[in-house]
Amino acid sequence: MPASTWRLRSDAWEYLRFAVKRIAFGNDNDDVLSTDGEVIRSLRALETIELYWAGFGRRYVRGVRELLEHGDYHTALERIGRVVNRLRGSAGLEDPREDQQDEAEQLEWQDDVDPRPRFEVLVVDETTEADRDSLHAEALRLRSEADDFIYDFVVVASAEDAIAAVITNPSILACVVRPGFSDRTRERLSTELQETIRIARDSAVHHPAPSRSSLASVQRVLGLADTLAALRPELDLYLMAGAHIEDLAGALSRRFRRVFRREDQLELHLSLLRRVSHLHDTPFFSAIQDHARRPVGVFHALPVARGGSVVNSKWIKDLADFYGLNLLLAETSATSGGLDSLLAPTGPIKKAQELAARAFGAKHTFFVTNGTSTANKIVHQALVAPGDVVLVDRNCHKSHHHAMVLTGGRPAYLEAYPLDDYAFYGAVPLRDIKQMLLDYRAAGRLDEVRMVTLTNCTFDGIVYDPERVMAECLAIKPDLVFLWDEAWFAFATFHPITRRRTAMAAAAHLEETLKTSAHAAAYEEQRRRLFDEDGTPKDDSAWLEERLIPSPDARLRVYATHSTHKTLTALRQGSMIHVYDQDWVRDAEEPFHESFMTHTSTSPNYQILASLDLGRRQVELEGFQLVQQQLDLATSLAQAIARHPLLRRTYRVLTAHQLIPEEHREVGRPMPLRSGFSAMWEAWAADEFVVDPSRLTVEITRTGVDGDTFKHEYLMNRYGIQVNKTSRNTVLFMTNIGTTRSSIAYLIEVLVKLAERFEEEQAQRDPELTEPAEAEMPPLPDFSWFAPGYAAEKALPDGDIRPAFFLGQKRGAIEHVLHDELRERVARGEEPVSAGFVTPYPPGFPVLVPGQVITAGVLDFMGVLDTREIHGYDPRRGYRVLRG
């Protein structure tokens, strides 16, 4: 499957090296080319795969096969070793002998020892093998020692091959389209890859050719460009043509960066290098480097700057020894002299944020150096005023609840579906969100609803369909603001399947959709069904059953917060706020900057800012490859647990069938990526909720220990394996862009050792001694209701937690009540009111907020929790309760 091509390619070459080495040195028989052997299967696979990669290519594979057929195993081994060394990122150990390689291969050898970053350029055109050789030779001729990067061409003949190439080869950073390409491939592609190509073409939004163009080939070229741009928006697209270049330039400029004549190879070469240099640019990191190299006199704050208080100290020199001198040289409180101010950027920080906005598909991006908790509060304070109603998932991060205290917004809590068997929540069904909006409309209070706040994806990997959520909510209230907490989803922008479920990509696609005539017609048709002739909305059932279509005049006001440090390369607390707001200048820019000033330190950490700049560079240049590997490695871990006899007896990987109720799944596959790239694509296009395949929730009931014990005493203390989250009977394993195959292998090894240990312990237990029964976990508690004085007047769910919070800070206004006594009060019919937040970890969200009535369900849940960490609750003193 395409998602595993990087591994299939690597493993095939590695196996060839292993097998041929044994033959070459006499450790195996010489029947390596038997038709059913692993060697011949590897060669067949590589003949197809290498078509879509630059450098060695299909002819190189055939050459290796010919050497094997003639028994020249040592030369074949040398050729195979060259490929393996490049795939590993290392150079060959010795130069090739001139009699063994032609001129093209001698030039190709230079790439193996060239230390410069290397990328690949896709060329789509019907060509002969001689033409391809000429193209490669021309690329080598144009190279200069002054170039910062090197590249080579991948040449394919058809649109289908072009799509296959950009899906399978993440090293491609640009594409040159020549109008002479054909539509269908002549290759024998797998059924899975053929289906993926079909879905990719069908899923892209295709734009008609300009009416003034009379060229028949324009629509075909546009169709390919639209598909490639939808798959890999980071790709640079160039058109190279002969005749009618002026007409083509006018007709296709929207899709292509430049249009060249075929003889303009030098201009194309310079354009390719310049564009990659723009992606590679890190303005703030470069400014910090420059500052560290300059001789500077510090007559300002920060004694640690330039290492002044460290390098001359007798007692803390180990700080410099451990972290290195560059960290100290880069420390400064200066905002001029080539640096910039995060609070009012005009130089390298401003440019770095603009580059991040480009990378993440936002209209504006802001760097945050004190985490996504602060980023969330910035957005809330900028957009929510006292009295505004915010529809918010109660299962969201505590920062959103605290933001309600800061802003005076009135939360109306949405309930995610519970997963009681595993002691955590899923996500909020769209039908429930729509119902709450309709309730406010029926009560005449829809104008008070300001924002919808949801977590995408949740800690446990449940992912919404943001475009559908926003479209249907905007159909009810066309000026809603959306805040998507994507703390754990920053990586998703850089994969063609996961990208469509990010807030920024969904906003961009929805904006484009709202402009079309087809959308306007569909909206008018639905409006006639949902409204009476006098303009009165029909009853809620019609609105709930239909997939609502927003007005073409709806305003897109979308914000996303990313914990960049959680899933991409950045230092701790490095986060971003992304903005896609059509009313930014009119309604949001000034209050946003005031809010940003409120929550941002005047002394932000420059090292965090530099890491955000570098993290953006990395994902623009290699994000697709890294995310693809991340997803595939998680899938390989799930497969290992499912296939290993001991592991599957002890552990169970929870799939979409356990984590998402059936009514929210259309495709129905338990783990779509395991069935192939196309299966995942279908599920992520159709299902209301999907599971992020990079997260594996593993149920551990059969180990006989709880999740907290499994995490701390076994994984971390014994084997140094770190995990973020557990529940009573589950452990969450997450892969990321830094995960390696070796780390997956180590985890599998540890899980096997632990499974053996657990089975042995259970076998040695005295059968006559019964284990004490484990306390049954009660259902996860829903939000109860706000107490009178804090609740809405018209039986709607919103409440004002701000006055309850501040009243709870006054000693005379509260009392501490122990758990058992509070349970007795509730049993007598009393309705005690929480004076603060109570947040157990896990599940990691407030089960009580200020002003909330404490119920038996909450107390039952709290009574059996054995978690080590509960914020806002001291078991020695009890709950903080407002006095009557």
Please describe the structure with a list of short key phrases separated by commas or semicolons.
884 residues; alpha/beta; seven-stranded mixed sheet; five-stranded parallel sheet; 33 helices
Please state the structural category. Answer: alpha/beta
Kindly state the number of beta strands. 23
Question: Any low-confidence stretches, pLDDT <50, length ≥5?
Answer: 92-100
How much of the sequence lies in strands comes to 5-15%
Q: End-to-end distance, in Å? A: 64 Å
Helix content: 40-55%
Question: pLDDT average, as an integer?
Answer: 90
The biggest sheet amounts to: 7 strands, mixed
Strand order of the largest sheet: 6-15-14-13-11-7-8
C-alpha geometry: globular
- The gyration radius over C-alpha positions equals 30 Å
Q: Please give the count of helices.
A: 33
Q: Would you mind describing this structure in some detail?
A:
The structure is a single chain. With 884 residues, this protein is an alpha/beta fold. Strands 6-15-14-13-11-7-8 form a 7-stranded mixed sheet, sandwiched between helices. A 5-stranded parallel sheet has the order 2-1-3-4-5, sandwiched between helices.
